Amino acid sequence: MNGKPKIGVYVCHCGTNIAGTVNVEEVRDFAASLPDVVVARNYSYMCSDPGQALITEDIKNYGLNRVVVASCSPRMHEPTFRKTLESGGLNPFYLEMANIREQCSWVHEDPIAATEKAKRLLEAAVVKARNLEALEQKEVDVEPSCLIIGGGIAGIQAALDIADAGFKVYLVEKSPTIGGHMAQLDKTFPTLDCSACILTPKMVDVANHPNIELMTYSQVEEITGYIGNFNVKVRKKARFVDMDKCTGCGDCAEACRLAGRIPNEFDEGIGMRGAIYLPFPQAVPAKYTIDKENCLFLAKGKCGETPKCQEVCQAGAINFEQQDEIVEFKVGTIIVATGYDVFDARKKPEYGYGIYDNVLTALEFERLVNASGPTGGKIVMLERGKKKKKKEEEAEAPKVPKSITFIQCVGSRDKSVGNEYCSRVCCMYTAKLAHLVKDKIPDCEVTIFYMDVRAFGKGFEEFYDRVRREGVRYIRGNPSEIFRRGDKLVVKAEDTLTATPLEHETDMVVLSVGLVPRSDNREIIDILKLSQSSDLFYLEAHPKLRPVDTASDGIFLAGVCQGPKDIPDAVAQAKGAASAAMIPMAKGKVKVEAQTSVVNEETCRGCGFCVELCPFTAIELVEVNRQGWPVKVARVNEALCKGCGACVAACLSGSIQQRSFKDNQLLPQIKVLGVK
Amino acid sequence: MSAEEISFIEKYDLLGCIQCGRCTGGCPVSMRTHLNVRRFMYDTQNEERLEELSERPEIWDCTTCYTCAARCPKGLEPLEVLIGLRSLQIEEGRIQPTVRDALESIFKDGNPWGSPRAKRLDWVGDLDVKVLEPEAEEVTDVLLFVCCTDAYDPRVMKVAQSLVKVLQAAGVDFGIIGEDESCCGSEVRRLGEEGLFEMCDEENVELLNSFNVNRIVTISPHCYNTLKKEYHGLRHPVLHYTELVAQLLEDGKLTLNKEIGKVVTYHDPCFLGKQNSIYDEPRYIITRIPGVEFREFDRCRERSLCCEGGGGKMWVESESKAERLAEIRVTDAKEMGAEVIAVACPFCLLTLEDATKVRGIEEEMRVADILELLAEAL
Ligand SMILES: Cc1cc2nc3c(=O)[nH]c(=O)nc-3n(C[C@H](O)[C@H](O)[C@H](O)COP(=O)(O)OP(=O)(O)OC[C@H]3O[C@@H](n4cnc5c(N)ncnc54)[C@H](O)[C@@H]3O)c2cc1C
Ligand code: SF4
Ligand code: SF4
Q1: Span of A399-408, B1-10, B125-134 with lowest mean pLDDT
Q2: What is the third-level CATH fold of A342-385+395-516?
Q3: Quick check: A42 contacting B, CB < 8 Å?
Q4: What is the ipTM of this complex?
Q5: What is the value of pTM for the model shown?
Q6: Kindly report the CA angle at B304 between B300 and B310, in degrees rounded to 5?
Q7: How far is the CA of A501 from the centre of ligand 2 (A)?
Q8: Residue in B21, B39, B299 nearest the CB of A477
């Protein structure tokens, strides 16, 4: 496609988005007057079918060899118009866009000045287009396997979908079992399905699936490479139990000298475990783990004469010599499904959490109402920090609360703790928990203090209606403080509907804590270079159109790690991420960035500055022969280069150029924009 | 007219309010007065009602304890709306005589207590205290900013005197301003007299900057808050005395020898705790006094109950006949077996001591500033 440039210019109205401010006819006429422009048109929606047809027709009829579209941001429609060029038989990289919407009509009010600016932007695109070159888009093979980080419901669902489709899945879970938060829940809103009943079969499927390699108590240490070819390094932490020998009988846990003395994380510290433990009976894998921070033998070097667990284990599975193991493998795609933490209620000291035994977080309360929880599902008043009495009969029967009060929005919608967002699940899980209280203790007085009830999902409003009619009292007002009066807790609040300040006495308070990014979120950010949105959850590539993608090709998001959501939404997103991850795996090949940088090996001084700078480790120093002398020069691995241009800007000898952004393409453009 | 009132909405970001009720829920006086600060966040959005709202007596019930602002999930400061309404009243010249007298006295004599400047140093008595010279060549470590109440009130004077003894025992190089010292203006601002506060700000900053000192130490948390957070251009760092004394104890510069032998509790002043997050230092000091058995109020630290001494309440009579918060406080202290309520604020000292008298328990319940206990333990 050499010879004289023949440029077609297309000015889009974008309805009134552009044409409402910019005089598009005037811009079109101006374009037509520019050298090398053979045709200029304006049209209401260039991205529409007829709009694109204008371009392909003109390519044929006028023999165009460059196309300039003046419309919205290239982030939006560059891929669209590149395809248009391709279908018109032109190399897609002969396209240049002028952004006269975001950078012009949307941000200016004065039509005359806006039209002038649109002309300038357009002219700059035209002069750049003149020197554009055809580029070749290379393809690389895709490893037909996927790494999933995090084994909550989102990770589990994505793993099953991908494995069922016939691809290999590596599921890496940090804790000793998969299941995540959903495994801790009793019933689930709004349908009240028992969480375990719908979750545990899926957990078992994961363990048994021939295409899934499950790694629990494991952590991703390092990931290098790019879409299609990621190299993954995982640390399988020593659990001091031989997974092949352990039968899951549990004799060790009963025998452990510390049995019942260590707060069980799975029970949110309400229940106790020993140093060797299974988080909960349905854990997957059903293999025991020794927690080395607490184990007397591992932490102190001595546990009686011989460690009790070792003494009783018939299978001989206890192995104190076990070491962490590093495994390495390749995958084509990655799904991050690392979930969330609940808000730390201690950050709102006015609610007395951590001071009063019977101020609970909702997740603690989930364990309390859970049939497989530490009280067998009995809702009782807690006495925290008290040693369990040796003989059961010595202990008084625990008291049943006569009134329970829920406080909404603890740690959500609250600037004072830096969380401005709504956590989306608390209104509904509170309604669910209130219902469960009414179910278990019918005469218990249940009060919910709220500021707005957000019942937006399928079946939510209906469920809210039902719970109110069960006698749950909703008071509109967000409480400010909790203190004690005698043996009652006093919730200080205002009923805002009647403007009545009140001191509400209650036996137990449940704080409806919000969902927050995991405290260890940074680990994965550092390994995968993910971005965060302002709420600090992981950032998707586009809030509407690419909700499961990240800015890095081949890396996807699923579940609450991307933002608060309930189980149905987490599952839907997991299925979306699974399908997105399967596209390149099913194709077997992916196109890689064509607008990569190239090193002029004749002038490169081999300083290596760019090598250190490149965020994608795409540049290395290689030895070449320069007129008989061996010299080091930089070389770009085109499969890794993302075209960010960092090396171009930084090169001290000006030896790196980026395709489509070369000096002879950019400088004329700058000149147009800069002069005058 | 309307431009001005739009600025009322903007000034207090009223449109940011979601009417959640946390402010009123937390407000310590909401249960005993007619004040519902959330309603004011809503009602003042109607510019035509501003005048009427500013005439409501309950706007004077606010103690400016700051609980409403500390609890607001949207980062708003509801109490400032009440102060804004007070300003409208003051501008109109509608003002209670007691308040007018206090403000006039500050304007004339630099203190709200109607006493002449010449008597500002009476509290010193025969103590040997250095009076600082402006622009002195030699550096003095600490400038002691004596609150008007410490300077003039016969009861509270003892607190200032105790601080002098403590600093002398610890060998601290300090001095005071003397008769030129003026009210910090904390209460002035909170009574809504913006103009006079600006004067306090300007004149005090100029005066304080003229001294060659390393730091300023205040006795009252109200002065502390104002100097530290509300003044413009103050050069010296500001400390509350509890911060300095805790440091002296930690460094071993201050030794306490005498046993106090009492059950002591501590009442967090709003201006020290809720507003400046100084919770640990006072407790550190008290628990180092020999023979003290320390007990916490149930409502302590971030959940402490206001004594109603701030926000100009020293000069405003409340209409409410309901039990005063200070009375609840001393009753609670008695119930938990405390013999002494330690405080770190002159207003808390006066209100709580008064409450022991109203309750007739002044014989069994002592209210004392931490400094008084320290001076006795030297
Ligand atoms: C009190 C409460 C009640 C709720 N009730 C309901 C309800 O009734 N109905 C409903 O629909 N929703 C409910 N929810 C919401 C529900 O918990 C979530 O929607 C769901 O659990 C999200 O699943 P997930 O897989 O995204 O995250 P998680 O469940 O948090 O799972 C993430 C997993 O990733 C693992 N992980 C984290 N980091 C790493 C790492 N670096 N490497 C390896 N593994 C890692 C974690 O250990 C965990 O197993 C409730 C939430 C709360 C707090
Ligand atoms: S706490 Fe804040 S947001 Fe809530 S009602 Fe009061 S001022 Fe409005
Ligand atoms: S500052 Fe204190 S007394 Fe005044 S309105 Fe706010 S909470 Fe109530």
Answers
A1: B1-10
A2: FAD/NAD(P)-binding domain (3.50.50)
A3: no
A4: 0.94
A5: 0.90
A6: 145
A7: 14
A8: B21
